[in-house]
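[PROTEIN RECORD]
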Amino acid sequence: MKFLYLLCLVLVCSASAQTITFNGCHNLFEDQNFTFNKIGVDAFNKNIYMTTPINDQQPCSGLGNCEFKIQWNNTLTRWEFLGDEGDGTFTSPFLIYYNSTGNNSLSIPPGNNAGIWIENTTVTNGDCNGNLTTGNSTMTGDVQGPALGIQEVSKGKIQVFPNPVSDFIQISGINDGQVIQIYNIDGRLIRSEVFDSKVNVSQLTSGVYVLKIKTRGMQSHEFKFVKK
């Protein structure tokens, strides 16, 4: 019997593409990317994702070929990362990870930094090296970002203004900025770009967002702002 596992971790946050990219559990799945495509929506308005190709063609270490699925389990109120039982079928799939601690009101699954993806060691025998983290996996795309119970508008000497904003956010008090990321209030990453003290937000729709600033010194600062 072929052990196949579904890992929901390297996701590239793109609402239009509706894909998830995962890389993790190298002991079982090798150091390679698995791409999930949205294939539909279930009866609870949760997206369903499946790896491509789904034709028994992606090599997976000594396990043969790996094909995965990420879907919502409404009975257990959790997202599940599943591996097929052979030849791309999911009649009796293997449960690799599960996450019941993300924002379950959303139609997309948590990323590996949102809630906790728990390794199902009954199936993996602990070979995935524990729960999914940003240290042992990547998960990008159509996934939830970290929880956004963020600090308000300023930290010490750092200022983000004006707030509310129509066109441009000004940032002062940061001399070693490296990356700027903007999340919507649901925790989905919608923009990521090189740091600049002047950020054009004119194309954003009205609403509440979180601006995350990463520095070259490995610090991270987060601020809520309102787009008019």
Q: What stands out?
A: The first strand starts at residue 19 and ends at 24. The chain has two domains: 19-141, 154-227. The mean pLDDT is 82. Residues 19-141 form one domain.
